[in-house]
Design a protein that fits this description.
- There is one protein chain.
- The chain has helices at residues 30-33, 62-65, 68-72, 89-92, 98-102, 112-120, 137-145, 170-178, 238-245, 270-278, 287-295, and strands at residues 109-110, 148-149, 155-159, 184-187, 193-197, 200-204, 221-225, 229-232, 353-359, 382-385, 402-404, 413-415, 418-419.
- By secondary structure, the chain is an alpha+beta fold.
- It folds into two domains: 6-21 and 189-419, paralog of FGE (formylglycine-generating enzyme), CATH 3.90.1580.10; 98-150, Type 1 dockerin domain.
- The strands form four sheets. The protein has a five-stranded antiparallel β-sheet with strand order 3-4-5-8-13, with no helix packed on it. It has a four-stranded mixed β-sheet with strand order 11-10-9-12.
- A hairpin with a 5-residue loop joins β4 (184-187) and β5.
- 48% of the residues are buried.
């Protein structure tokens, strides 16, 4: 382990289970999003309430906009509600593809079963694909052109543009919009809520005027993250882990912790985290991506908060953004309970240490590439970032680096999901 003592990590015996470690639940994940699974999803407006708005897309009327299928599938007029429910239909509704409309039984294929249904409805409006009021030759032509598998996006957009109440910095909002990606999405397999991190350049390593920096935080060096990526708004929760894996290894669960589903999953190794994320095409962030996202444009030890909009080096303000050794009560806490950073990401400081993808080397910064550094090619330890419920303020700093062998697990070890669009 690097410059952190073992007192900052508490290991526990692993929970075991005979239940399958496969994404078998993912096939039926979508309907549960309507019930609000996934913190922050659809919290501002009720399904079927006043924010169910008309759609311009043919074949998707007001009622369809409020069904599970149309709510969750961007190829079938998905609705993404703004906090004030004031966005226009064009901002909320993703285009309906011909293939999605022609897949009448929603089995992921345009095939003979769909063709049979179209021919049976010939001359009626029953399965009108092109919106001309009748089922006819143009619908047949569109179906045949779409024959085969129906492309499905990996995400469901929730908000297209960044919420100014969350991303308060105008330059960050502009950078997010410039990516042309939806700001807030739900991963369709894991149900993880994710936010866009725009590309950019920052100084990685010890923050200016931070007196707590250690040797492995030097030299400070400019790093460019060349492409936008998605990062989990919260640390992966116990409910999200159990949904995909069928068992929950966490220590802080059971009757004593009734809010355990919303607490971060912990007691997972780097190998465990990597396996979980691979099931749905997600990944761990690199160490550079993690620090870039943490800082969100700040150059201080701790990221921005309401009483320090430019960030701060004052550890006395840490409780605003972090569950740590002084305020957590010797346990994890439900995600999202502290102030977010400038990108809307919660718990980047504290709650649980977060695995990142990189191997750890104390002297890596001296030889690090300036663009998208991947970390050392090999190593003995994997890097962890962000501090935890058991660790002091100094380890919650933006530049603080820690490491542990990849097959370690502890009640203070968790992770956050990333994805390349």
């Amino acid at each position: 382990m690097s410059q952190t003592t073992t007192a900052m990590l508490i290991s526990h015996p692993r929970a075991t289970s005979s239940r399958p470690r496969t994404p078998w639940r993912a096939a039926i994940a979508a309907p549960l999003l309507v019930l609000g699974i996934g913190q922050g999803a659809f919290a501002d407006c009720g399904v079927g309430g006043p924010c169910c708005i008309p759609h311009a897309e043919p074949g998707c009327d007001d009622a369809a906009c409020c069904t599970a299928v149309c709510l969750l599938d961007p190829t079938c007029c998905m609705v993404a509600w703004d906090a004030d429910c004031a966005a226009s239909a064009s901002e909320r509704c993703a285009p309906c593809s011909i293939a999605a409309k022609a897949d009448f039984n929603d089995d992921g294929q345009v095939d003979a079963a769909d063709l049979s249904r179209l021919l049976a409805a010939w001359g009626t409006p029953a399965v009108d694909i092109d919106g001309d009021g009748t089922t006819g030759a143009s619908d047949l032509s569109g179906m045949l052109a779409s024959w085969g598998p129906v492309p499905r996006p990996w995400y469901t957009p929730v908000e297209i543009a960044p919420d100014a109440a969350v991303v308060t910095d105008g330059a960050l909002r502009k950078a997010i919009i410039a990516t042309a990606l939806p700001w807030r999405v739900i991963d369709n397999l894991s149900l993880i809520e994710m936010l866009v991190v725009p590309p950019g350049t920052f100084d990685m390593g010890c923050s200016p005027s931070d007196p707590s920096c250690l040797l492995d935080e030097f030299p400070v060096h400019a790093v460019t993250i060349s492409g936008a990526f998605y990062l989990g708004r919260y640390e992966v929760k116990q409910s999200e882990w159990a949904w995909m894996m069928g068992a929950n290894p966490s220590i802080f669960q059971g009757p004593a912790y009734p809010d355990a589903p919303d607490r971060p999953v912990e007691n997972v190794s780097w190998t465990d985290a990597h396996s979980y994320l691979a099931l749905s095409g997600l990944r761990l962030p690199s160490e550079a991506e993690w620090e870039y996202a943490y800082r969100a444009g700040t150059q201080t030890a701790y990221h921005a908060m309401p009483n320090a909009p430019e960030g701060t080096n004052d550890g006395a303000l840490l409780d605003n953004i972090s569950w740590n050794s002084l305020n957590a009560g010797a346990q994890t806490r439900p995600v999202g309970g502290k102030r977010a950073n400038g990108l809307g990401l919660h718990d980047m400081s504290g709650n649980v240490w977060e695995w990142v993808n990189d191997w750890y080397a104390a002297g890596y910064y001296a030889a690090s590439p300036s663009i998208d550094p991947p970390g050392p090619a090999t190593g003995f330890w994997k890097s962890i970032r962000g501090g935890a419920w058991i660790s002091p303020a100094s380890s919650h700093r933006s530049s603080f680096r820690n490491s542990i062998v990849p097959d370690s697990w502890a009640s203070s070890l968790g992770f956050r999901a990333a994805r390349t669009p």
